[in-house]
UniProtKB/TrEMBL annotation:
This is F-box domain-containing protein. It comes from the Eukaryota. Residues 314-338, 581-633 are annotated as: Disordered. The lineage of its organism: Eukaryota, Fungi, Dikarya, Basidiomycota, Agaricomycotina. Residues 603-620 have a biased composition (Acidic residues). Residues 1-47 form the F-box domain.
Amino acid sequence: MANLLALPDEILTQILSALSAVEILQSQLICFKLNSVIKSSTEIQYLIALQIAGLEDNGERSILSQAERLERLQRGQLAWRQWKPQFTQKIEVKQPANPIYDLSGGAYFLGRESMLDLDFAVLPDSEGDVQDWRSISVKETVLDVGLCIDEHDLVVVVTRKPVASQPPLLDIALHPMQYSTGQPHPLALHPRISVFKDQHPHPAVGLEIVGENLVLIVSHRPDQMADATEDRVLVYEWRTGILKMSLAAPYRSYSGLIFLDEHTLMLPNTKRGILEVWVLPRSPTEPSPSAPMCALELPLLAPGRSFAELSCRSEPNPIGERSPTPHTTKPTKRQHRPYKANTEDAIIVFNVRIQPVQTGPNPLLVVGFSHTYTFFVHRKSILRILHEQKRDEKPHIDIDFPSNSVLFPKPVPWEQWGPKATRWIETDDIPTRWITTTSGQRAVLISSAAANQQGSGSPIITVDFNEARVKKVGHQLAQKQRKEREKEERRRKLVASRLEREHSELVQKFRECKEWVERIENQLGDIKASSSSEPTLAPRGATLDLSLPLELDDWPPLNGADIELVKSFLEQHSELGEQIENPASPLPEVDQDTNTNGLLLDELSDSPDSDQESDSDDDAGISLESPSGGADRQNAKARYARVWCLATAQVVDRAGVCFHSPVVSELACLGYTSKKQYHFDGVLIDDERILGVTTSSADDRIKKFEVFYFG
C-alpha cells in the first residue's frame, strides 16, 4: 500500500480512472492521500459524474476541456432534476405537415403535406439560435423515415411508387440520404433500393438502422383482405443494398422493433403476446434463423381480450462495432458534444393497446372499449435475461428449418422476468400516439387533458429510471423521513411540556381523575359501576372499596369521590385529554427544513465532493410514492410534490378488465414535475431537450412546438 501511495498523483489518477464510480468512492474512504487525489482530480470527478448520469465521454470529438465538460454536465443534470430549462424557444412549422415525424440526433423531422418531401428543424442548443429549417426531397411518395444521424450521418427515406402492372402494384423502396447535405449518402452503393412490390396503397412501415444493418417492417392497416395479408421483416446491408434476412408472419404480428445490439433484434409479436429476440446474420452468406433465439412472455390477457397494438422505441440505438466516427461532409455542433447516452442503460418504452376479441363476420367489428398501458424496461435488463438463457440452454441441431419449426423456443414466463424488470402505468388518459417519448433513461409524459385549451392545462412529468439516481434520492428520502419522525417526537414533547407549564393544576387533576377511574373500572371488570352510594354486588371472592380504592397517601384529593362526578369532569375536559394523549397542536417552527408540499430535497449533488455546486431546489417537494397512491393526506402532498420517488411495487388493472390477473411491476424511478401547466397535444424528448407539440384542431396536424432545453 505504501508503494502505491508513493506514486505520483498523475499515475494514481490514471489507476483510479480505470475503476467504476462506486469503486472510486470506496477508495476515497481508504486514506487521506487517495481522498485528496480523487477530490482534486477533474478527470476523476468527470468520470464519476458521467457514470452516475448514465453517460459516456464523446472522446476527441469534443473541443472542450475536461473541466468545461464537467461544468456543462453538472449544469445540465441540475436543470433536468429541478425541471428548470436553461432556455425555451417556440418554433412555428412553416409548411403544412403530414403525420410522418421522427426525433433523433438533435433534429425534428416532419413529413410535408405533399408527401414528396421531408422538412426537419435543427433544434437549438444555445439561447438565441436562429431556427434552421432544411428539407430532403426524393420525388416519390414518402411512407416513413429512419434516422441514424449520430452513427452514420444517415437518413433513410421509405417511399412507394406505382408500377404499371395488372393488378396495380406499388414499388416500396429505400433511399439512403446524407443528413448533413440532403444528398444521396456517399457510402451507399445504390441511391435507391427496391424492396418489393405491394398491392396495398397504405402500408405501415417501421425502420431502424444500427451498424451495417437496416431492418424494415412492413405491415398493413385493417381492410377486407386483412386475413390474407402477411407482415414482412426485411434485413438489409444499407451500404450494399443486399438482403440478408427475410421473415413473413401472419397479419398484425409485428409493428415495431428494437435493436438490443448490432446483431440482436427484438420484435414484439402482437399475435402471440410475446417479445421475440432474433439473432441477425452477420453477412448475406450466413444462413438466416427460422426461429427466435429467445421469447419473453407478456402478462396473460383476460378471456375475450387481445393485443391490438404493441409499439416500442428506445433512444439512442446501439452503435456498430465498425462505426467509430460518422462519415460527415459538414461537421455539426452536435458531433462536438462532450458526452452521449449509454445505449445499454437506455430504457425501452412499449405502448400496449388491449381490445376485446373481434367477433362476427366483419373482422373489423370490435365490441367494447380498448385500454392502453405503457411499460418501461432497461435494454440491459433484456440483454441480461438473454445471457442467462444462453448460459442455461441445451445445445440443439441445425436451426435452418421452415418457419413452423418445432424448435421455436419455449417463452420465458412473465413472472420469471417481468415484474422486477419493468414499470407499468395506465395510459388511457395519456396521449400515446407519440412514440418518441424516451431518451436515455428518461421518459416524458403529459395528460390528455392538456390539449383542452379551455382548461387549466397539465404539468409535464419527466420520469428518470437512472438506478444510481434512484438509490441516492431514496437514501436521502429515508433520511428526510427520519428527521420528520424526530421532529414530530420533539413536537409532542414540546406540546406536553407546554401543557404542563400552562395548565399544571388542571393537567395534574385530569391525570389523577383519569387514572383513578381506570383503576376502579379494572377492579369492577364487567360490572357497571353505580353512581349511587348503595352497595354494589361484586363477583364472588372479590373485595371492592369504592370510596377509597387506593391508599390514602396516593390519592388524597379523591378520597370518597363519586365516580360519576369524576367521569363528568373528564368529559368536560376531553380536548385536554386528546392533547395529553396525542399532542399535535401547532407550535412555533423548530426548524425550517419542511414544506407543506412534502419533504424537501435539500441537496441532489452528483459530485462526491460536498464543496461542489449544490443542486438544491427550495421549491421541490418529494414523495415516496407517485401522485396516485397513499392515504388522503399523502395524496394531497403527492399532488403538489415536484419530485417523487416510486420505489415499491405497483399494480395496474387491479379489477382484471384486461389481464388475467393484476400486473405487478417494481422497476424504481423518480418523477420530476414542472411547476407550470401547459396546453400541449403531446410531449417528445431527446437527450438534451423536451418538445411540447401543438396540433391544429381542424386536421390534427402539427402547427408549432416549444423547445425546453436542459442540456
